[in-house]
Amino acid sequence: MRLRNLYTFLTVARLGSFHAAAAQLHASQPAISARISALEDELNVQLFARDKRGTQLTPRGVQLLPYAEKLIAISHEMKAQLLDDAPERGTLRIGIVDTLTHLWLSQLLTRWHEEHPLIAFELISDTTASLITQLKAADLDLVLMVADEHPLPSFVTEPLCSYPQRWVASPAMTEVEHIKGLRDITEHAILSFPRNTRPWRYLKELFEPLGELAPVIHTCSSVASLLSLVKQGVGIALLPEPLVMQEVYQKKLILVENLPKAPALNFCCAWRLDDDRILPRLLTDTARRMIATH
């Protein structure tokens, strides 16, 4: 019996929805349904019933629930015990997008070193697309990236965090106070992350109806450089909220309120499905707990 299928069962049961479980586990809804079907076939029972009220546990599903919870808890306890009894050694190669590098890398590395003092960490900051390519090629062992819009069947993915995006500009750009909509920013440059990243694609689609009036989009892979450029008044930027709010409080940036609300950026951890080591899961659990408490 695959623990992944049991964990999926618990997630669907907790959320009461295959769709919601797929979103939380960063998998497609057919993939979630396939895992539940495999579990039902293995146990020879029906675990969920769907009706107008939504997805409900069957009596057999209710009966399985405490056993599934115990098995998952035992699995986590076993991994922690093995780690305590036999500390892992070696090198782990971790890729991380620059937003998370800027926000969390120093704290993550400190915590990971405290928990795994015999592991040397090799860290690479890059775009999500590049990190996925390197993970597929086994050049990386774990990546912290923007959650992909499509399922990644060769990876295990776990949600990490989600951040709203905010439009910001330099206080020196006094004209932004008069911005009432997209057409009011056509003469301003827009600052964003590299081409084909999720934020860049959102901006291209947003400005497409403007045609030739669409503003120029300057891109940069460095969060620090983007913040510096926007503070110097080079353009208006759309950035994850935690990156900018301290600068807003210090009045080094101002919020541009009357522009369309961008979707939140979701981040996840991922490692290869064929990697049976405990360490990627343990590092992911540590990262999620640490970020959730800050």
UniProtKB/TrEMBL annotation:
Transmembrane segments: none annotated. It holds the Pfam family HTH_1. Residues 1-58 form the HTH lysR-type domain. It comes from the Bacteria. InterPro entries: LysR_HTH_N (IPR000847), LysR_subst-bd (IPR005119), WH-like_DNA-bd_sf (IPR036388), WH_DNA-bd_sf (IPR036390). Residues 1-22 form the signal peptide. One of its GO terms (molecular function) is DNA-binding transcription factor activity. The keyword Protease does not apply. Keywords: DNA-binding, Signal, Transcription, Transcription regulation. Belongs to the LysR transcriptional regulatory family. This is Transcriptional regulator, LysR family.
